[in-house]
Amino acid sequence: MSGLTPKTMITRPHPSPFRLAVRAARAALSGELPPRYAGYRVSWRTDFKELAGPALKPGARVLDVGAGRRPMFPPDERPAGVTYVGLDVVRSELEAAPPGSYDEKVAADVTKPLASLERQFDLIVSWQVFEHLHTVPAALENFYAYLRPGGYAIVSLSGRYSLFGILNMLLPRRLGVGLVARVMRRDPETVFPAYYNHCYWSALDKLLRPWSSVEIVTKWAGAGYFRSLVPLQAVYILYEEWAAASSRHNLATHYFLQLRK
Question: Does the predicted model carry a pTM greater than 0.70?
Answer without folding.
Answer: yes
